[in-house]
Amino acid sequence: MVPGLPGKVDWQLFAHYGGPLWTMQALVLVDRSMGRFRQALELTAEDCQWRSKTGDEEDFRAVKKGGHARSMSLLEGENFVTGFQYFNPKKIGLRMSTQSGHEDKLILNTVCNAFGINMRISMRNPDEWKYVKGQIEVGNGKGQKKYAHPHGWASVGGSSEAASFLLQLPSAQAKFNLLSACEDDAKTKAKKICVKHLGKHAEADVLEDCIFDVCRGGEDFAAAAAELLAA
After folding, report:
1. Which of 170, 190, 221 is the last residue of a domain?
2. What is the pLDDT of residues 15-55, one digit of tens each?
3. For the chain, how far is it from start to end, CA to CA, in angstroms?
């Protein structure tokens, strides 16, 4: 943090799953460092448009695509504390002030399509994963503890427009109709498709996820996975 300014970094990431293929339909990245709302970035599969909100602004605003990278940051007096660095629609940096200057501690990569959002988070310093808590913390892999939020989208920092979009998605019941195991023939076909798209990235965990997605949603999922890995 900024020397002389006590406080902690508090970045929060929320995602909503739904739609006909039970995919991620929205995510919102919220910065509540030093005990107050500082800024937020939101993305939905409705239009794949990033929107931002800083400080006391009432509404989210569309982030213009193209051009130079943009920084979203609420200053503490004249001091930079934390911020989100928008490099492009596929890459967001989570930046904070350190003794060495401003550093991007995490990178959020996304690929957004009409059927949903693919997301990947990487830590510049792997030793700092110990500070990450919740569903994406180290050791909480697939099938382990889930973190459902009991309140609505707007209550966690998202926009009312996104909340309205999410409310009209198919109900959670659709999820259970999609999670039945693929037949062996379908798995074999899906594996070939995934290997074709993933190439050198077709490692065990990545390949397993890709096969599952292709079985239920088709080749577009393999293409999106490859695009995310290349982002």
Report:
1. 170
2. 998 887 888 999 999 999 999 999 999 999 999 999 999 99
3. 29
Helix (H) and strand (E) counts for the chain? Answer: 5, 10
Residues 149 and 195 in one domain: no
Are residues 217 and 149 part of one domain?
A: no
pLDDT at residue 146 tops 80: no
| Integer Cα distance of 156 and 154 in angstroms | 5
Output the CA–CA distances (angstroms, integers) from residue 78 to 5, 11, 55, in the order listed: 12, 21, 14
Cα(28)–Cα(40) distance, integer angstroms? 7
Exposed / middle / buried, residue 25 (Cβ in 10 Å: 0-12, 13-18, 19+): buried
pLDDT of 200: 81
User: What CA–CA distance (Å, rounded) separates 134 from 131?
Assistant: 10
pLDDT recorded at residue 163: 95
In Å, how far are 65, 148, 157, 166 from 152, measured between CA atoms?
Answer: 29, 11, 9, 10
Query: Which strands form 116-123's sheet, in the order they lie side by side?
Result: 70-72, 82-88, 91-98, 101-113, 116-123
